[in-house]
Amino acid sequence: MSDMTFMEKLLDGVEVEWKHLGDYAEIRRGTAITKRETQPGGFPVVGNGPGYNYFHAEGNRIGETIVIARSGAYAGLISYWTIPIFLTDAFSIHPDNDFLRTKYVYYLLKKDQEKIHQMGQGAGVPHVRANDFEAYPIPIPCPSNPTRSLEIQGEIVRILDTFAELTAELTAELTARQRQYNYYRDQLLSFKDGDVEWKTLGEVGEFIRGKRFTKADYVDAGGIPAIHYGEIYTRYGVFTTDTFSQVKGEMAEALRYAEPGDVILTDVGETVEDVGKAVAWLGDEKVAIHDHCYAFRHSMNPKFISYCMQTASFITEKAKYIARTKVNTLLINGFCNVSIPIPYPNNIEKSLSEQSRIVAILDKFDLLTNSISYGLPREIELRQKQYEYYRDLLLSFPKPEAVEA
Question: What is a GO molecular function of this protein (predicted)?
């Protein structure tokens, strides 16, 4: 596709006018409903987050629907639905299809996703307002000829759908591989046969709690390597040799540290999976850890322990020792009673060799399914960048000064 040459051919010299979205679309808030108020049925209840929360006996939106989450952490999140839904803490956009294709408007808004997220107002819970979209500027090619305009919009949608479908196919394949990997990992670490002994974490090692530091303590360079509990959910995998953060050097005496070979885990989280999520620290020096982290010190292969802590059976046992309050919290005294397998427990050298063998196998699977620099994750990242490039190219219509202002 030749950048501007293609766009010039597509537009073929036609005029592009910027109009207010509210003049060409119905923008309407959803209806409040709680899970307790729902009736059994098959209509997804869509609100202030990705996907749907539960089901209801009736729907209040049909056909193509653009949804924008209204409040909370996902305020401004844009999604597109083709099935009937029940819309709750969000608002919908239904363009007038005599002038605008719904999917075309969706792609235009999705291109501005970050800007729309930032529209959230208020010092507390973020909110976006339906009224803010009444005057939202939308480019309409060839407005004097609606038939030609819809043809141009349709071609743009067709191209972007093609890229989106390619990415979706790769993502589906990756999801299938991840399930296969998870199954194989869980089977490999179940040790249904062989010389193995299951020991509690309290028998295997000890837990050292971190010390508090805040964002104000961070420095860009020259500080103490540090791991914040929130980063363990989002930025680290099974292990790491480097940190993403550093804190002020003058805090050295007030901090607590994980040593090389320790497994660092969180003690709070939004989900059971997040609480107790582990990362093996394989760096060359000690690293400061937040007070919502524990360093698990032991004499085993740290990556072996980290892999064990990912298994479904471990998560099930861990769940027994999580206090489900406003913030899910790990009860460390109970967590110490969760068991992990020790192969060849009476032969330390043979045990460590077997742990290393299993880790080498799982590392290969982990690389193929999770590494952003290798395999399918890398291919998906490249496809996504390609999609975003052409999306920006196809949807970046020139704006008059009045619109830019």
Answer: endonuclease activity
